[in-house]
Amino acid sequence: MKPIPYGTQHITDEDIAAVTEALKSPLLTQGPKLAEFERAFADYVGARYAVAVSNGTAALHLSALAAGLGPGDRAITTPITFAASANCIRYCGAEAVFADIDPQTYLLDANRVETLLQQAEPGTYKALIPVDLAGYPVDAERFRRLADRYGLRIIEDACHAPGAWFTDSSGKRQRTGNGAYADMTVFSFHPVKHIACGEGGMVTTDSEELYEKLLLYRTHGITKNPEQLERHPGGWYYEMQELGYNYRLTEFQAALGLSQLKRADAGLARRQEIARVYDEGLKDCPGLTLPSRAKDIYHAFHLYVIQCDNRKGLYDHLHASGIFAQVHYIPVHLQPYYRSFGWKPGDLPVAEGYYERCLSLPMYPTLTDEEQRYVIDRVKAFYR
Ligand SMILES: *Cc1c(COP(=O)(O)O)cnc(C)c1O
Questions:
Q1: Which residue's CA lies nearest to atom 6 of ligand 1?
Q2: Residue 1 predicted with pLDDT over 90
Q3: Closest ligand 1 atom to the C-alpha of 200?
Q4: Reduced to 3 DSSP states, what percent helix, strand and coil does the chain have, rounded to the nearest 5?
Q5: Per-domain boundaries in the chain
Q6: Which protein residue's CA is at the shortest distance from atom 5 of ligand 1?
Q7: Quick one: CATH architecture of 4-261?
Q8: pLDDT digits over 291-332, tens only?
Q9: Overall pTM surpassing 0.85 (yes/no)
Q10: Ligand 1 pocket check: which of 54, 62, 101, 190 to mutate, most ligand atoms within 8 Å of Cβ?
Q11: Domain 264-383, CATH class in plain words
Q12: If 0-12 CB within 10 Å is exposed, 13-18 middle and 19+ buried, where does residue 235 land?
């Protein structure tokens, strides 16, 4: 059996043809494919606007800037995420504050967030960055209520969850990134995520004001839009109005993203099926707790994360069998960089307990039935 990773991209001949065509076109960057990809992605999630950028981390950075984060401000995120969810706060010179996770969903616990907000001077916190961990969509409506009460922006990190939805209190299905509750939602097109561009990212929003800011920050803070210019001496003229970045996505990456987007729903359906087979195959295995999920959500299953006894033993056993299970995540507040701000073991006990026992089993649309049977078999063998 060939090595089985925890996740990988799926590139088809159609994808390759789309990239080849883009490479033959006159514009390799800032051309028509970008706009086409942004429009298609905005429609896919149900948002008014989408801004494509060079990666998910850049998408988080631009969102944090657009949310107005700066020195002296604070923003709250979860410790169980990829470091970039917190780093974007630091890029703006603001303070990253971690709140503990919910013991059932492992997502940022809104009750903990509320306690932090209640205890702080008004105006201290500027943004909330909840993360749809593993593809489990956060209750964005609940965070919206907090954000409105305390005057914060919501940046939802949906890098794991394109296509997921939760059901709001009116019974309506709300797709992640549709702009109904979060101010901005961030996606990644890293190869291990649902839609691969090599590198790539997207921010979606329903706010025209935030959209304009994101566009400006993406391209050096430079605008040529006559409506935004202070002067207009001639056709050559542009203004750099803010300190922005070059976070653009190339045309061939956009072409790949567009081609991949066509298969996004099929990929999600396959991930659901794989999850069901794990649920069934491992349900009686001692030593494991399988991922729970509410009935009224659609989980995007970027990851299938189990909680297990003797995690190191199982990790080593699976790796020795060619199964590259992975740990998502080492709590971000315990990284040396964040410890230097005073964070320490014991600060966030639910997250730290989760980390001790978590392991992500292989989950990607091209995982074969035979490979999955092998994974289940090896896990069971370990606990026998
Ligand atoms: C992948 C990921 C990112 C960063 O995306 P890149 O495209 O790799 O920069 C941010 N947050 C989460 C939760 C991720 O999984």
A1: 56
A2: no
A3: 7
A4: 40, 20, 45
A5: 4-261, 264-383
A6: 56
A7: 3-Layer(aba) Sandwich (3.40)
A8: 999 999 999 999 999 999 999 999 999 999 999 999 999 999
A9: yes
A10: 190
A11: alpha beta
A12: exposed
